[in-house]
Design goal:
By secondary structure, this protein is of the alpha/beta class. It folds into two domains: about 270 residues, Alpha-Beta Barrel (TIM Barrel), CATH 3.20.20; about 80 residues, Immunoglobulin-like. Helix content is about 25%, strand content about 20%. The chain is built from eleven helices and 16 strands. The strands form three sheets. The chain has an eight-stranded parallel β-sheet. A six-stranded antiparallel β-sheet has the order 9-10-11-16-13-14, with helices on one face. It has a two-stranded antiparallel ribbon with strand order 12-15. Strand 2, helix 5 and strand 3 form a beta-alpha-beta unit. Helix 6 crosses helix 7, helix 9 runs parallel beside helix 10 and helix 9 packs parallel to helix 11. The longest helix is centred in the N-terminal third of the chain and has 17 residues. The chain is globular, with a radius of gyration of 22 Å. The protein starts with a helix and ends with a strand.
């Protein structure tokens, strides 16, 4: 009897040891490219390979864009006779293993999409009941990142459902960044830290500044939903206000600049969502701004908080490592105004700091002297402060 009890205890402990996510991943917010915002289900092997090539040739890979994520629409409509997911043979004739090999050969990482329900949001086979089988398949393809959606889940419990996939990924013995995409409906910031590496906090973003539909929403509304969530973010566990619309047609250049600034301040994942094949030099300059990316990727892992809001002026503050700070002023209104900065109002500053304007890429003085800067409609002033 004692031997039976001991054996049972060992088995239970072994099971518990597997009930975890892979640690040491996403210690800074993940960066990469995702197909959904521009292409939705119209994805294919040629498009992904062309995108990989541009990530390399444009300098985006060197800037930190690592993950290439194929979102919904890559699958055939049904699993095979063995219950395995099958890539659409017309869209991906070489298969997903070959695609993953191509991505890896170019120094990038392979991401894929599926769903916690019986079907994805666009009617392709979901992972419900196939978690361990799918995780082993993803591992065989060399998948490094899994975005897991929340359609067709019925009355399923979100924490328990996502735990099942987490455990399946761990059992497959390949480290995978696990992205929970249940749109903030179940407040994942309160329970997902030990399950995934990032979790969506909102419905889907769209390339519009002030739009708000039943599910999709523009930049301004998504920003409002991030307030108060900063305490839940940190290395290995990030709030995700959805992917970037930078460079997409619904945003002006100023709005794209604001978008990238505020996602950098929020320590949000930086997942580009534009068509890189048609990217303008101005869009590339925003996406590869070294100072903005460094602020996003700061090892301290602090998410910015809203410091003040007055009329159309919103101020965000982000604490950085090495006693540095980033501050962004956002003009949410339709008219430009002159921003008057009195450094004495920022009581968290200790001493005098040198100031760099992130978008102008130049030093603009010190906090010993107050400043006046013009800020256009829907634009930002983005400053980095370093102790002098």
């Amino acid at each position: 009897m004692k031997k039976i009890i001991l054996t049972f205890t060992v088995l239970c402990l072994a099971a518990l040891a597997q009930a975890q996510k892979y640690e040491g991943l996403a210690l800074t917010p993940p960066m990469g490219w995702n197909s959904w915002n521009t292409f939705e289900v119209e994805v294919n092997e040629k498009l992904i390979k062309e995108t990989v090539d541009i990530l390399v040739s444009s300098g985006m890979r060197e800037a930190g864009y690592t993950y290439v994520v194929v979102d919904d629409g890559w699958e055939a409509l049904e699993r095979d006779d063995g219950g395995n997911l099958v890539p659409d043979p017309k869209k991906f004739p070489s298969g997903m293993k070959a695609l993953g090999d191509y991505i890896h050969a170019n120094g990038l990482k392979f991401g894929i999409h599926n769903d916690a329900g019986t079907r994805t949001c666009n009617g392709f086979p979901g992972g419900r009941g196939h978690e361990y089988q799918d995780a082993r398949l993803y591992a065989s393809w060399g998948v490094d990142y899994l975005k897991y959606d929340w359609c067709a889940t019925g009355t399923a419990n979100a924490p328990e459902t996502y735990k099942t996939m987490r455990d399946a990924l761990y059992a497959a013995k390949r480290p995978v960044v696990f992205s929970l995409c249940e749109w903030g409906n179940n407040k994942p910031w309160e329970w997902a830290q030990d399950i995934g590496h990032l979790w969506r906090t909102t419905g889907d973003i769209t390339d519009c500044y002030n739009c708000q539909g039943e599910y999709d929403m523009g930049l301004r509304f998504i920003l409002q939903l991030q307030e108060g969530l900063e305490k839940y973010a940190g290395p290995g566990h990030w709030n995700d206000p959805d992917m970037l619309e930078v460079g997409n047609p619904g945003l002006s250049l100023a709005e794209s600049r604001s978008h990238f600034t505020l996602w950098s301040m929020l320590a949000a994942p930086l997942m580009a969502g534009n068509d890189l094949r048609k990217m303008t030099p101005e869009t590339l300059a925003i996406l590869t701004n070294k100072d903005a990316i460094a602020i996003n990727q700061d090892k301290l892992g602090k998410q910015a908080y809203r410091y003040m809001k007055h009329l159309d002026k919103v101020i965000y503050v982000k604490e950085l490592s090495n006693d540095e700070w980033a501050i962004a002023w956002h003009n949410t209104g339709d008219k430009a105004f002159t921003l008057r900065i009195n450094w004495k109002h920022f009581d968290f500053l200790n001493g005098t700091y040198n100031i760099k304007d992130v978008w102008k890429n130049k030093a603009v003085g010190t906090t010993h002297k107050n400043m006046e800067i013009n800020i256009d409609s829907h634009d930002v002033v983005f400053l980095k402060l370093r102790k002098s």
